[in-house]
Amino acid sequence: MSELGTRLKEARIAKGYSLEDLQDVTKIQKRYLAGIEEGNHSMMPGPFYVRAFIKQYAEAVGLNSDELLEQHKSEVPVSVKEEVRPTLTPPTPSRRQTLAKSSSSGMGEIMPKVIVALFIVVILAVVIFFYNNLATNDPLEDAADEEGVPYEETDEADEEAPPAEEQPEETPAEEPEEPAEPETSLSVVGSEGETTTFAWKGPATRELKIEASGPSWVSATGPNQQELMQPARTMQASDSEAIDVSGVAQVRVRLGASSNVKLTVNGEPIEYTQDLITQNIVIQFTDAE
């Protein structure tokens, strides 16, 4: 057993933790915890995980992880910087697609007005056409010309034909207003040990965003302990992950170093009420009416 492993084991025993208890706290498999205590680092997934697991072990039992690694750096393998996979984001619609949608919706609003205007113009043109034909082809005037008798038009003939009545322009029906976005509220239900429970009420569509400013173990699970992160892992500075929690009644987030992690729901930050390194954040969701 290495000196580093002996010191960690003594701290664990002083805390009253078994390896099973520590496994529940850190989410590190029991065989890796035993390997750290025995100094058997070859069984770890890689050098990077050796340092990450030792730091999380130390923080869980109340030791200063940075000071401990510095004192025993000869026993800890040098980590190799791992390639961070970029988070895939859904493609955003192009400007051409956006313009096509807006122009098509604009045409849909204008077309009924254009059709009504054309209909009125056609009716007026037909009325004017028949009126001109009646005025130029008066049968009484033609009969007078054939008999050689002058024909005097009556006053009624001098009266102008009444103008055609214009049909009222149809006004498009007003579109119903979209319902306002429901208000969001966040409150603290209570705290017990390392767990703080929050009650969140707001829109049915919601997103939990996890942003890391430094190394920290992070896991997120639903009501039936199903994993919401793919996978649960030690996040590094500038790492982030967005999780769709629409339709999820409750989510539990386990933080190995809470000061290095920021949580937001639909952009609203979750303020930690306990000054603990390792803690659990439980958020209970309710849809606003």
UniProtKB/TrEMBL annotation:
Question: Taxonomically, which superkingdom?
Answer: Bacteria
- Alphabetic keyword roster: Membrane, Transmembrane, Transmembrane helix
- Xref: InterPro entries: Bact_Cytoskel_RodZ, Cro/C1-type_HTH, Lambda_DNA-bd_dom_sf, RodZ-like_C
Q: Which Gene3D superfamilies match?
A: lambda repressor-like DNA-binding domains
Q: Where is the HTH cro/C1-type domain?
A: 8-68
Where do transmembrane segments lie in this chain? Answer: 110-131
A GO molecular function held by the record: DNA binding
Which intervals carry biased composition (Polar residues)? 184-198
PANTHER family to which the protein is assigned, alphabetical: CYTOSKELETON PROTEIN RODZ, PTHR34475
Kindly provide the name given to this protein in its UniProt entry. Cytoskeleton protein RodZ
Species lineage: Bacteria, Bacillati, Bacillota, Bacilli, Bacillales
